Amino acid sequence: MKKTLLFISSLILMLNSYSSLDKKTLPATDFKITQNFIEKMVKKHNFDKNELRSIFSTIRFVVVDKFAKKKQVKKTKRVKKPPMPWNKYKGLFITDNRIKDGIKFWQDNFKILKRAEQTYHVPAEIIVAILGIETNYGNNKGTNPTFKTLVKRAFGNYRRRNFYKKELESFLLMTRENAIAPLSVQGSYAGAMGFPQFIASSYRHYAVDFNQDGKIDLFSNPIDAIGSIANYFDKHQWHDFGEIARPISLKTKHLKHAKRANSKPKKNAKHWRNQGFDIDVDIAHATKLAFIRLPQKIIDETWLTFWNFYVLTRYNHDNRYAMAAYQLSTKLKQKFKPPTYYE
To answer: Number of structural domains, the chain?
Structure first.
Protein backbone atom coordinates (compact mmCIF):
# COMPACT_ATOMS: atom_id res chain seq x y z
CA MET A 1 0.00 0.00 0.00
CA LYS A 2 1.33 3.41 -0.92
CA LYS A 3 2.37 5.64 1.91
CA THR A 4 0.02 8.39 0.76
CA LEU A 5 -2.93 6.16 1.53
CA LEU A 6 -2.13 6.54 5.21
CA PHE A 7 -3.19 10.16 5.02
CA ILE A 8 -6.44 9.65 3.15
CA SER A 9 -9.41 10.35 5.35
CA SER A 10 -11.29 7.44 3.86
CA LEU A 11 -9.11 5.01 5.80
CA ILE A 12 -10.61 5.06 9.24
CA LEU A 13 -9.28 3.26 12.28
CA MET A 14 -12.17 1.21 13.59
CA LEU A 15 -12.22 -1.21 16.48
CA ASN A 16 -15.64 -2.75 15.90
CA SER A 17 -16.67 -5.31 13.31
CA TYR A 18 -18.36 -3.94 10.20
CA SER A 19 -19.99 -6.84 8.41
CA SER A 20 -21.51 -4.50 5.82
CA LEU A 21 -18.15 -3.10 4.64
CA ASP A 22 -15.10 -4.58 2.96
CA LYS A 23 -12.35 -4.51 5.54
CA LYS A 24 -8.84 -5.67 6.24
CA THR A 25 -6.39 -5.38 9.10
CA LEU A 26 -3.01 -3.67 9.16
CA PRO A 27 -0.39 -3.48 11.90
CA ALA A 28 -0.53 -0.34 14.00
CA THR A 29 2.93 0.63 12.78
CA ASP A 30 1.51 1.23 9.29
CA PHE A 31 -0.31 4.30 10.53
CA LYS A 32 1.14 7.75 10.85
CA ILE A 33 -0.45 8.35 14.25
CA THR A 34 1.46 5.36 15.66
CA GLN A 35 4.68 6.33 13.91
CA ASN A 36 4.46 9.83 15.42
CA PHE A 37 3.88 8.39 18.87
CA ILE A 38 6.90 6.11 18.55
CA GLU A 39 9.06 9.02 17.44
CA LYS A 40 7.88 11.00 20.45
CA MET A 41 8.79 8.20 22.86
CA VAL A 42 12.23 7.87 21.27
CA LYS A 43 13.01 11.60 21.45
CA LYS A 44 11.33 12.39 24.76
CA HIS A 45 12.18 9.26 26.75
CA ASN A 46 15.06 7.66 24.83
CA PHE A 47 13.21 4.45 23.94
CA ASP A 48 14.67 2.08 21.38
CA LYS A 49 12.79 2.68 18.14
CA ASN A 50 13.10 -0.86 16.85
CA GLU A 51 11.83 -2.33 20.12
CA LEU A 52 8.79 -0.06 20.06
CA ARG A 53 8.07 -0.88 16.42
CA SER A 54 8.29 -4.55 17.30
CA ILE A 55 5.67 -4.45 20.06
CA PHE A 56 3.38 -1.99 18.25
CA SER A 57 3.40 -4.20 15.15
CA THR A 58 1.63 -6.92 17.19
CA ILE A 59 -1.48 -4.72 17.33
CA ARG A 60 -3.66 -4.63 14.24
CA PHE A 61 -6.34 -2.15 13.23
CA VAL A 62 -9.34 -2.75 11.06
CA VAL A 63 -9.27 -0.50 8.00
CA VAL A 64 -12.56 0.39 6.34
CA ASP A 65 -12.49 1.38 2.68
CA LYS A 66 -14.92 4.18 1.88
CA PHE A 67 -15.30 2.86 -1.67
CA ALA A 68 -16.74 -0.40 -0.42
CA LYS A 69 -20.46 -0.77 -1.01
CA LYS A 70 -22.28 0.23 2.13
CA LYS A 71 -25.44 -1.33 3.36
CA GLN A 72 -28.03 1.20 4.33
CA VAL A 73 -28.46 1.11 8.09
CA LYS A 74 -31.18 3.03 9.80
CA LYS A 75 -29.68 5.38 12.32
CA THR A 76 -31.06 5.23 15.80
CA LYS A 77 -30.84 8.01 18.31
CA ARG A 78 -28.70 7.17 21.30
CA VAL A 79 -30.68 7.30 24.48
CA LYS A 80 -28.81 8.05 27.66
CA LYS A 81 -29.44 5.30 30.17
CA PRO A 82 -30.47 6.31 33.68
CA PRO A 83 -27.89 5.50 36.36
CA MET A 84 -28.16 2.14 38.07
CA PRO A 85 -30.21 2.59 41.26
CA TRP A 86 -28.08 2.76 44.35
CA ASN A 87 -29.61 -0.30 46.04
CA LYS A 88 -28.84 -2.43 42.98
CA TYR A 89 -25.33 -0.97 42.62
CA LYS A 90 -24.35 -1.66 46.22
CA GLY A 91 -25.77 -5.16 45.94
CA LEU A 92 -23.01 -5.93 43.45
CA PHE A 93 -20.29 -5.24 46.00
CA ILE A 94 -21.66 -5.52 49.53
CA THR A 95 -22.31 -9.24 49.76
CA ASP A 96 -21.85 -11.85 52.46
CA ASN A 97 -19.07 -13.53 50.48
CA ARG A 98 -17.20 -10.29 49.92
CA ILE A 99 -17.42 -9.47 53.61
CA LYS A 100 -16.29 -12.98 54.59
CA ASP A 101 -13.39 -12.91 52.12
CA GLY A 102 -12.47 -9.42 53.27
CA ILE A 103 -12.26 -10.53 56.89
CA LYS A 104 -9.97 -13.39 55.86
CA PHE A 105 -7.77 -11.06 53.78
CA TRP A 106 -7.55 -8.64 56.72
CA GLN A 107 -6.57 -11.42 59.12
CA ASP A 108 -4.04 -12.89 56.68
CA ASN A 109 -2.43 -9.46 56.20
CA PHE A 110 -3.09 -8.03 59.65
CA LYS A 111 0.44 -6.84 60.45
CA ILE A 112 0.89 -5.27 57.02
CA LEU A 113 -2.43 -3.42 57.24
CA LYS A 114 -1.54 -2.27 60.74
CA ARG A 115 1.75 -0.87 59.43
CA ALA A 116 -0.07 0.87 56.59
CA GLU A 117 -2.42 2.48 59.12
CA GLN A 118 0.51 3.68 61.20
CA THR A 119 2.43 4.94 58.17
CA TYR A 120 -0.33 6.68 56.23
CA HIS A 121 -3.15 7.03 58.82
CA VAL A 122 -5.65 5.43 56.46
CA PRO A 123 -7.90 2.85 58.21
CA ALA A 124 -7.26 -0.80 57.38
CA GLU A 125 -10.94 -1.38 56.61
CA ILE A 126 -10.85 1.26 53.86
CA ILE A 127 -7.83 -0.40 52.22
CA VAL A 128 -9.46 -3.83 52.43
CA ALA A 129 -12.77 -2.51 51.06
CA ILE A 130 -11.05 -0.96 48.03
CA LEU A 131 -9.28 -4.23 47.28
CA GLY A 132 -12.57 -6.06 47.69
CA ILE A 133 -14.45 -3.86 45.25
CA GLU A 134 -11.65 -3.57 42.71
CA THR A 135 -10.49 -7.18 42.34
CA ASN A 136 -12.23 -9.24 45.04
CA TYR A 137 -8.97 -9.21 47.01
CA GLY A 138 -6.81 -10.02 44.00
CA ASN A 139 -8.93 -12.85 42.62
CA ASN A 140 -10.14 -10.95 39.56
CA LYS A 141 -7.45 -8.63 38.20
CA GLY A 142 -8.61 -8.78 34.59
CA THR A 143 -7.45 -10.77 31.58
CA ASN A 144 -7.38 -8.07 28.90
CA PRO A 145 -3.92 -7.37 27.36
CA THR A 146 -3.20 -3.91 28.75
CA PHE A 147 -0.89 -2.75 25.97
CA LYS A 148 -3.42 -3.69 23.30
CA THR A 149 -6.20 -2.01 25.28
CA LEU A 150 -4.30 1.26 25.57
CA VAL A 151 -3.11 1.30 21.95
CA LYS A 152 -6.59 0.76 20.57
CA ARG A 153 -8.14 3.32 22.89
CA ALA A 154 -5.38 5.86 22.19
CA PHE A 155 -5.45 5.54 18.39
CA GLY A 156 -8.85 4.05 17.64
CA ASN A 157 -12.40 5.30 17.49
CA TYR A 158 -12.82 5.92 21.23
CA ARG A 159 -13.70 8.84 23.43
CA ARG A 160 -10.91 10.32 25.58
CA ARG A 161 -8.19 9.42 23.10
CA ASN A 162 -5.84 12.06 24.52
CA PHE A 163 -6.24 10.58 27.99
CA TYR A 164 -5.36 7.13 26.70
CA LYS A 165 -2.36 8.44 24.76
CA LYS A 166 -1.01 9.79 28.04
CA GLU A 167 -1.76 6.51 29.77
CA LEU A 168 -0.01 4.61 26.98
CA GLU A 169 3.05 6.82 27.47
CA SER A 170 2.91 6.20 31.23
CA PHE A 171 2.45 2.47 30.67
CA LEU A 172 5.59 2.17 28.56
CA LEU A 173 7.55 4.16 31.13
CA MET A 174 6.08 2.06 33.97
CA THR A 175 7.03 -1.23 32.34
CA ARG A 176 10.54 0.00 31.59
CA GLU A 177 11.05 1.34 35.12
CA ASN A 178 9.89 -1.94 36.65
CA ALA A 179 11.49 -4.32 34.11
CA ILE A 180 8.12 -5.68 32.97
CA ALA A 181 7.52 -6.97 29.45
CA PRO A 182 4.75 -4.70 28.05
CA LEU A 183 3.01 -7.52 26.20
CA SER A 184 2.83 -9.66 29.36
CA VAL A 185 0.59 -7.30 31.33
CA GLN A 186 -3.10 -8.04 31.72
CA GLY A 187 -5.81 -5.95 33.36
CA SER A 188 -9.27 -4.49 33.02
CA TYR A 189 -11.08 -3.65 29.78
CA ALA A 190 -10.07 0.00 30.34
CA GLY A 191 -6.41 -0.51 31.20
CA ALA A 192 -6.42 -0.72 35.02
CA MET A 193 -3.96 -3.19 36.51
CA GLY A 194 -3.03 -5.34 39.47
CA PHE A 195 -4.54 -5.84 42.93
CA PRO A 196 -5.63 -2.18 43.27
CA GLN A 197 -6.48 -1.66 39.57
CA PHE A 198 -4.20 1.33 39.17
CA ILE A 199 -3.97 2.95 35.77
CA ALA A 200 -0.42 3.40 34.52
CA SER A 201 -0.02 7.02 35.64
CA SER A 202 -1.23 6.12 39.14
CA TYR A 203 1.16 3.15 39.24
CA ARG A 204 4.07 5.49 38.52
CA HIS A 205 3.01 8.20 40.96
CA TYR A 206 1.52 6.31 43.91
CA ALA A 207 2.75 2.71 43.93
CA VAL A 208 5.28 1.95 46.68
CA ASP A 209 7.66 -0.87 47.57
CA PHE A 210 5.92 -1.57 50.87
CA ASN A 211 7.65 -4.91 51.55
CA GLN A 212 11.01 -3.24 50.82
CA ASP A 213 12.33 -5.94 48.49
CA GLY A 214 13.74 -3.44 46.00
CA LYS A 215 10.89 -3.56 43.49
CA ILE A 216 7.27 -2.48 43.17
CA ASP A 217 4.87 -5.25 42.27
CA LEU A 218 1.13 -4.62 42.27
CA PHE A 219 0.40 -7.68 40.15
CA SER A 220 1.33 -10.48 42.53
CA ASN A 221 2.29 -8.78 45.79
CA PRO A 222 -0.59 -7.82 48.12
CA ILE A 223 1.84 -6.10 50.49
CA ASP A 224 2.86 -3.52 47.88
CA ALA A 225 -0.81 -3.16 46.93
CA ILE A 226 -1.82 -2.40 50.53
CA GLY A 227 0.86 0.23 50.93
CA SER A 228 0.13 1.74 47.52
CA ILE A 229 -3.59 2.21 48.19
CA ALA A 230 -2.80 3.83 51.53
CA ASN A 231 -0.22 6.07 49.87
CA TYR A 232 -2.72 7.00 47.15
CA PHE A 233 -5.22 8.25 49.70
CA ASP A 234 -2.53 9.95 51.78
CA LYS A 235 -1.29 11.84 48.71
CA HIS A 236 -4.88 12.92 48.04
CA GLN A 237 -4.93 14.45 51.54
CA TRP A 238 -6.90 11.90 53.50
CA HIS A 239 -7.77 13.37 56.89
CA ASP A 240 -6.32 11.05 59.52
CA PHE A 241 -9.07 8.63 60.57
CA GLY A 242 -11.63 11.36 59.89
CA GLU A 243 -15.33 10.77 59.41
CA ILE A 244 -16.63 9.92 55.94
CA ALA A 245 -20.42 10.30 55.64
CA ARG A 246 -23.75 10.37 57.46
CA PRO A 247 -27.30 9.97 56.17
CA ILE A 248 -29.33 13.16 56.30
CA SER A 249 -32.92 14.11 55.57
CA LEU A 250 -33.15 17.27 53.49
CA LYS A 251 -36.03 19.66 53.04
CA THR A 252 -37.32 19.99 49.49
CA LYS A 253 -35.79 23.45 49.13
CA HIS A 254 -32.38 22.05 50.07
CA LEU A 255 -32.32 19.16 47.61
CA LYS A 256 -30.73 21.38 44.97
CA HIS A 257 -27.57 21.39 47.07
CA ALA A 258 -27.32 17.59 47.05
CA LYS A 259 -25.70 16.46 43.81
CA ARG A 260 -25.47 13.12 42.08
CA ALA A 261 -22.00 14.10 40.85
CA ASN A 262 -19.14 13.93 43.33
CA SER A 263 -19.01 17.07 45.39
CA LYS A 264 -16.02 18.65 47.09
CA PRO A 265 -16.77 20.09 50.55
CA LYS A 266 -16.24 23.83 50.27
CA LYS A 267 -18.53 25.45 52.85
CA ASN A 268 -18.53 24.75 56.54
CA ALA A 269 -21.22 23.52 58.89
CA LYS A 270 -21.90 27.03 60.17
CA HIS A 271 -22.76 28.17 56.64
CA TRP A 272 -25.17 25.29 56.15
CA ARG A 273 -26.79 25.84 59.54
CA ASN A 274 -27.36 29.47 58.60
CA GLN A 275 -29.06 28.20 55.44
CA GLY A 276 -31.50 26.18 57.55
CA PHE A 277 -29.88 22.75 57.24
CA ASP A 278 -30.35 20.44 60.21
CA ILE A 279 -26.70 19.64 60.90
CA ASP A 280 -25.96 17.35 63.85
CA VAL A 281 -24.79 19.30 66.89
CA ASP A 282 -21.60 17.25 67.32
CA ILE A 283 -20.23 18.57 64.01
CA ALA A 284 -18.00 21.59 64.60
CA HIS A 285 -18.92 24.89 62.92
CA ALA A 286 -15.62 24.91 60.98
CA THR A 287 -16.07 21.43 59.45
CA LYS A 288 -16.50 21.61 55.68
CA LEU A 289 -19.39 19.55 54.33
CA ALA A 290 -21.07 18.57 51.09
CA PHE A 291 -24.31 16.79 50.24
CA ILE A 292 -24.92 14.04 47.71
CA ARG A 293 -27.85 12.13 46.25
CA LEU A 294 -27.65 8.43 45.47
CA PRO A 295 -30.04 7.51 42.63
CA GLN A 296 -33.07 5.40 43.45
CA LYS A 297 -36.13 4.59 41.36
CA ILE A 298 -38.47 6.70 43.48
CA ILE A 299 -36.69 8.90 46.03
CA ASP A 300 -32.92 9.40 46.02
CA GLU A 301 -30.98 8.73 49.21
CA THR A 302 -29.35 11.87 50.60
CA TRP A 303 -26.11 11.97 52.54
CA LEU A 304 -23.96 14.51 54.31
CA THR A 305 -20.34 13.93 53.31
CA PHE A 306 -17.03 14.94 54.81
CA TRP A 307 -13.66 15.54 53.16
CA ASN A 308 -12.68 11.86 53.27
CA PHE A 309 -15.69 10.89 51.17
CA TYR A 310 -14.44 13.28 48.51
CA VAL A 311 -11.00 11.61 48.74
CA LEU A 312 -12.66 8.24 48.11
CA THR A 313 -14.10 9.69 44.89
CA ARG A 314 -10.54 10.41 43.72
CA TYR A 315 -10.15 6.64 43.33
CA ASN A 316 -13.37 6.44 41.31
CA HIS A 317 -15.45 9.54 40.61
CA ASP A 318 -18.79 7.80 41.03
CA ASN A 319 -20.50 8.63 44.35
CA ARG A 320 -21.99 5.15 44.35
CA TYR A 321 -18.50 3.64 44.26
CA ALA A 322 -17.29 5.76 47.17
CA MET A 323 -20.40 4.97 49.21
CA ALA A 324 -20.09 1.25 48.46
CA ALA A 325 -16.46 1.34 49.62
CA TYR A 326 -17.44 3.21 52.78
CA GLN A 327 -20.33 0.89 53.65
CA LEU A 328 -18.33 -2.25 52.90
CA SER A 329 -15.53 -0.95 55.12
CA THR A 330 -18.04 -0.35 57.93
CA LYS A 331 -19.34 -3.92 57.74
CA LEU A 332 -15.80 -5.29 57.64
CA LYS A 333 -14.85 -3.31 60.74
CA GLN A 334 -17.96 -4.46 62.60
CA LYS A 335 -17.21 -8.15 61.99
CA PHE A 336 -13.42 -8.16 62.15
CA LYS A 337 -11.55 -9.73 65.05
CA PRO A 338 -7.73 -9.61 65.23
CA PRO A 339 -6.02 -12.96 64.67
CA THR A 340 -5.25 -14.97 67.80
CA TYR A 341 -1.49 -14.49 67.45
CA TYR A 342 -1.84 -10.73 67.87
CA GLU A 343 -1.07 -9.46 71.33
So the answer is: 2
Q: Please say which residue of 49, 64, 79 terminates a domain.
A: 64
* Structural domain harbouring 297: 245-334
Judge whether 235 and 204 are in contact, CB under 8 Å.
Answer: no
In a domain? residue 320: yes
The CA dihedral of 187, 167, 93, 112, to the nearest 10 degrees, is 80
Q: What percent of the chain lies above the pLDDT cut of 70?
A: 88
As a whole number of angstroms, the distance between CA 32 and CA 38 comes to 10
Q: How many CB atoms lie under 10 A from the CB of residue 281?
A: 8
Q: Is residue 107 part of a domain?
A: no
Residues 208, 203: Cα–Cα separation, whole Å: 9
Give the 3-state secondary structure of residue 245: strand
Which tens digit of pLDDT belongs to each residue from 77-129?
Answer: 666 788 899 999 999 999 999 999 999 999 999 999 999 999 999 999 999 99
Residues contacting 314, CB < 8 A, separation 6+ = 232, 233, 236
**How high is the pLDDT of residue 68?**
52
- The verdict on residue 41 lying in a domain is yes
Angle ∠(95,99,103) on CA atoms, nearest 5: 170
Task: Give the model confidence (pLDDT) of 4-25 as tens digits.
Answer: 333 333 333 444 444 444 568 9
Active-site hit among 134, 167, 243, 343: 134
| E strands present in 142-300 | 144-145, 186-187, 245-247, 258-259, 267-268, 288-294
Q: Tell me how far apart the alpha carbons of residues 42 and 247 are, in angstroms, rounded to a whole number.
A: 53
39 is a catalytic site residue:
no
